[in-house]
Amino acid sequence: MRRFLLFFTVLLVGFVFIGRLFYLQVYNTETYSIDDDNAIRKVFHYPKRGYVFDRNGKLLVANQPSYDVMVIPREVQSLDTLEFCSLLRIDKADFIKSYDRAYRYSPRLPSVFLAHLSKEDYAVLSEKMRKFHGFYIQKRSLRDYQTSIGANVLGFIAEVNTGQIEKDPYYRMGDLIGKQGIELSYESDMRGTKGVKYIQKDRFNRDLGPYKEGQHDVTP
Fold first, then answer.
1. Where is 201: in which H helix or E strand?
2. Separation CA 145–CA 143 (nearest Å)
3. DSSP string, 76-135
4. Residue 8 pLDDT
5. Where are the alpha helices (DSSP H) in 23-91?
6. What is each CA distance from 200 to 4, 69, 111, 115, 212, in whole angstroms?
């Protein structure tokens, strides 16, 4: 009787597993999205914003490199807050404020923790970023206006707000957008197309390398 009961239990469990696999493969209509996979990290690469020339070909607006410290809140591990704040030249209150803002935006999506590092701070911090899990440095471009006139025509760029993020999925917290003049009128052309690199992670949240050898990566 016991042998029969054991055989019946094993058989029942087997049917349950087979049924579940059949459901997932055949009847489940939910589409797999690489963006929702917790084992894959997305790293964005920002294109250079479009240059502006006058009708004679003189350069009016160019770009200069900028470096932002990004954070993915759920990937942050125990760290030396004092050392980290010292490297960023901020205090603990600023650290908590920036982290809380990023967490409210999204625990799993990257957002700007600290914008516009100097080249000197970038050089020092980049050597030690491996110690601070969940943080990384993102290169962007800031505008370099080559003329002192026509500011109202050329316009300016500034950080996107919540409403703009909800309206256009292209933007994420910390992104820059044209706010006035040419920068605003030609925003869709100026901003270019973001590049995306998908990184495979292991169960300890460590980077293993490009997901599927970069087949899904997008070049900016």
1. strand 195-201
2. 6
3. -----HHHHHHHHT--HHHHHHHHHHHHHH-SSS-EEEEEEE-HHHHHHHHTTGGGSTTE
4. 67
5. 81-88
6. 45, 21, 19, 26, 8
- Which position has the token pair 């020092």? 124
40 within 8 A of 198, measured Cβ to Cβ: yes
Give me the residue spans of the domains in the chain: 1-30, 48-192
C-alpha count within 13 angstroms, C-beta hemisphere, residue 151: 4
> Which strand (E) or helix (H) includes residue 164?
helix 162-167
Q: Pick one of 3.40.630.30, 3.40.50.1820, 1.20.1560.10, 3.90.1310.10 as the CATH number of 48-192.
A: 3.90.1310.10
Q: Which of 54, 21, 26, 37 is nearest to 150 (CA)?
A: 54
- The terminus-to-terminus CA distance of the chain in angstroms comes to 67
Average pLDDT of the residues of the chain: 85
Structure tokens, 155: 């316009």
pLDDT in tens, 134-181: 899 988 888 999 988 888 999 999 999 989 999 998 998 889 999 999
Residue 177: CB atoms within 10 A of its CB come to: 19
Token pair recorded at residue 211:
């997901």
The residue behind tokens 């316009």 is 155
Please provide residue 17's backbone torsions phi and psi, each rounded to the nearest 5 degrees: -65, -45
CB 157 within 8 A of CB 183: yes
According to DSSP, residue 218 is labeled B
